């Protein structure tokens, strides 16, 4: 048992040394910038495994990565059911509705300076509030199923996207607007051909923030009541049954879903705003 | 100052919509009650009844205000029904976590700016971890720590610290790298040591970045603490107040707790903003 611990610590130190050497010698090459974080991640996982096995920590407190992987492989159907319930039905539908509503409202208030001056401070204020707190209220109104989770997500993503979109619609300068005016462009032509494209970098900034918020809203809302499936439900019941490997499997799914969701939005951003300097610089 | 009138009219519009929604959402209960008693509902009865139900679907604004006033000033501050008491429990955990997360974030950021190996290995993970819904697993962390015998303020503070940690880390790394090559070269001609450069150039020039992250971080800390108070064991704090309200259908209690949390968040963000303005002005940066 002690062998595990010593092996893990030695491996961690060796990996750190290798990373330091790589960073010194090849820090500017592309392959090193993938290898170094990967090696660091693997060494952390091994250290975790070694500590749990070596110090004989009970899986009730902290399961080893290998146990989590076993549980992950064994409970595929449960994980898939929870994924569909929480991520696809709750988070994704709420995300789409909330973001669409925010964009439409942003375009509407952009036409009226009065509304802009009135709604923006309120929107900024609300964006800083602990909005998750409305989860119990919305669960009461919309019932236990995914509709209430989607409602929580709608409210959570609405304000960050709104604030960013309004800033984006104001991003064109006077010169560009004057150019459209000399073309005798109508309001709608100016909106679709100039201001919406110019707003895209700002919009995607908000959309990326909203991906994490959507998952948080959907999972936290399940703590206030849910049908007998869903990630939040599974996490709270599995903790009650001391089935910690299953809990960590759910966390893995949530982490993968979160990164995948974010990555997908970032990919769409790359396709839509290919013209923006921040995207061109990377290519 | 010219935005006061628009803001006020938006707020007034929200109030009007809220009162309208109150009548609409609560009318079902009123009609049910009337049907059971065999009476018909007049308009005036509908209006007064929907505004004064004990467990409304949506409490009217004045009911929430009443609940808020009762909770804040109607009890002794040490009473378990006082919102000041619960807000204090939440605030203390938030502040401990906030201090912890800020300290750790600054330390790690200093390490990252001085070691290329650390930068390349830790930063990608720090950024990737931002996309993971950490907040959602907070209640689980609390339960596991409780089974180890760690209860009370510390587990909540850990969650708050974790949520504050990443904004501070990312902001400080950016801030510590903010000095340009000319300034760094000047210090080199002074033969300044690395720690001298850190104290006299890098840290001062990172202050605007630090405060920008702290404003995000303090709000995140508060949300983290409130969510950490949700597991069934907790009886104190604004999160526990929300949960018990939702179990017993005490909607007024939920809304009062929610508004207290909102007020607390606003106070914290404003406080950080005031400190920012004072510090930056003293340093000649604002």
From TrEMBL, chain B:
Xref: PROSITE patterns: ABC_TM1
Record's subcellular location: Cell membrane
Any one Gene Ontology cellular component term annotated for this protein: plasma membrane
SUPFAM superfamilies xref list: MetI-like
Domain ABC transmembrane type-1: from-to ranges: 83-276
Swiss-Prot/TrEMBL keywords: Cell membrane, Membrane, Transmembrane, Transmembrane helix, Transport
Membrane topology annotation: Multi-pass membrane protein
Listed CDD domains: TM_PBP2
InterPro entries: MetI-like, MetI-like_sf
Lineage top rank: taxon: Bacteria
Segments traversing the membrane: 7-25, 85-110, 122-147, 209-232, 252-275
Any Pfam family hit: BPD_transp_1
GO BP: any one term: transmembrane transport
Gene3D superfamilies: MetI-like
Principal subcellular localization: membrane
Family recorded in the similarity comment: Belongs to the binding-protein-dependent transport system permease family.
Name recorded for this polypeptide: ABC transporter permease
